[in-house]
UniProtKB/TrEMBL annotation:
<dbReference type="GO" id="GO:0006260">
    <property type="term" value="P:DNA replication"/>
</dbReference>
<dbReference type="GO" id="GO:0003677">
    <property type="term" value="F:DNA binding"/>
</dbReference>
<feature type="region of interest" description="Disordered">
    <location>
        <begin position="155"/>
        <end position="214"/>
    </location>
</feature>
<dbReference type="InterPro" id="IPR008921">
    <property type="entry name" value="DNA_pol3_clamp-load_cplx_C"/>
</dbReference>
<feature type="region of interest" description="Disordered">
    <location>
        <begin position="1"/>
        <end position="41"/>
    </location>
</feature>
<feature type="compositionally biased region" description="Basic and acidic residues">
    <location>
        <begin position="155"/>
        <end position="165"/>
    </location>
</feature>
<feature type="region of interest" description="Disordered">
    <location>
        <begin position="240"/>
        <end position="261"/>
    </location>
</feature>
<protein>
    <submittedName>
        <fullName>Uncharacterized protein</fullName>
    </submittedName>
</protein>
Amino acid sequence: MDDDGRQATFGADGDLSDRDPDADATNDFGDPKGSDETDGGYNRYAVSSLLQKAVRRSDEEVAAWAAWELARSGFAWNLWDRLTLYTVEDLRAGEDVALLVERYEELATERWEPAEWRGRLCAIHAALACARATSTREGPNADEYFRTVAEERAEARDAGEDPTHDFPVGEFEPGGEYDVAFDKHTGEGSRLGRGTRFFKDHGARVGPEGEGELSAEWQRELMRSHDVEFSEEEIEYAVAPVEADDRWTEPDFGSDTGTEE
C-alpha cells in the first residue's frame, strides 16, 4: 500500500485505528493521548519524518530515539513500515541493512512484543543500522528522472520532434551501441543467427573487474571442450574484463553475425 493509504487510518469517530490497543492511554505527563500522539507528546507523523531525515543524514542518536519513541508509543507498525521503505529509498543499493531490518522486525513483532523492551531494542538496532549505512537518494532520483524522460519522449513523438532527453540506451536496436544484448536469448538475436559462439564471445563477459581466476579457468576449459570450436583468441577474450571506459564495444573475430560454425 502506498504512503497515503497507510497514513489514512482514522475511523469515523476520529480515532486512530492502527495504534497498538495495549498502548498507554496517557502520555508521559499523565495527559490523555491524542490519536496521533506519542508517549512523549509528539505527533507520530513528525517523529516518523524525523526518523527518515536522521537516516538520510546519518544521525545515529536521533534515529535511535525516533525509532524508540514510535515503538514504545504503540506505533510499531508505522516504524517498521517506514524503516523498510528507507532501506530502498534512502540507502545505497547493495547495503545488507535491508536484511537486518527485516530480521529485527521479525524478532520484534513475531517473537517478542513490539513495545516491550526487547521489541524496543530491535527498533533501536534497526534504526542504527540504517543510519550507519551509506545514504543516497539514487533510487528515487533515478525513478523520477526516468519517469520524466519517458513523458518527454512521448510528448516529443506526438509533436514529431526529437526529445531533449532520452533513455541511456537510445533507440536500442541490433547494430547499435548495445548490440551485444541481442544474443540467442532474444528474438532479434535468434533471427540474426547468433548462437553459442556469439554468447560466449560477447554476451557472457563481465567486468570491468573480470572473472576470478578459478571461474576464468572453468570458462576456458568449457570453451575448449565445446562442440563449437573457439580460437584461443576468442577464449582469452571471453574471460577478459570489459573496458571500464568502453564497456560495450566488441570485436567480431571474423564473423559478421556471430553465427555457429
